[in-house]
Amino acid sequence: MLRLGLRTGVLEWLLERVPTPRRTPFTLGYLAVVGATTTFARLADPELVQRLQEASSSDGHNLLQHPLRALVLSGFWVAGEVWMPYLWGFALTLAPLERRVGPARAAAVFAAGHVAATLLSQGVVITAVETGRMAPEAMDYLDIGVSYGVLACLGAVAGLLSWRGRLLALGGAGLMIAEQIATDKDVITGVGHPAAVLTGVALWRWLRRAERRPPRPRPAAATAAGGAPARVRAAR
């Protein structure tokens, strides 16, 4: 019986965290969009895909000429043709955040991380090009993907965990970013990924105030004289 109870408890714990349209509509909706663009990128004409991604890129030139389009559309693609890793990324960061604070605030965190990290990283590139420290071609490097939003949600949800969970989440993010910086040596990633995590961390206080609370229990029924139940008014 104990083993059966443990299995049932683990299954219930897992099912409670599966994204559903009712509990995590933003997560599932965004995954559907990213899944659609990823499928399109794999099946469509490569030249057409390249043109669309270049038009959506948040590189320096696009940001200076079409900032709104670049900031919005760059987040609708993934870097590469594999979608599954982003499913796990959303399930472990955006989905739990949405369950805790609701879809509107989760979307705000995702967007804030994407925008802030993009502007900061590309600002570094633009400044480096203007000062001659980077070649002008750096202004046209393709910059698309959802990693900034995902990392911002990771940094944000860490603030809603226990101190052990927070340490694990931020420590894992730090190790991953350190490994990327050491191996890729890419300025955009090296600046953007830490900035995205810190954007989520900066929103802790706002999210803690807005965190969803469990519904308050209804006042218990008290038994009146003669055995008839009487409602008890909740104390203020």
TrEMBL record:
Low complexity compositional bias, start-end: 219-236
InterPro entries assigned to the protein according to its UniProt record, in alphabetical order: Rhomboid_2 (IPR046862)
Sequence intervals crossing the membrane: 70-88, 108-129, 141-163
Domain of life: Bacteria
Keywords (A to Z) from UniProt: Membrane, Transmembrane, Transmembrane helix
Location of the region described as Disordered in the Swiss-Prot/TrEMBL record: 214-236
Protein name: Uncharacterized protein
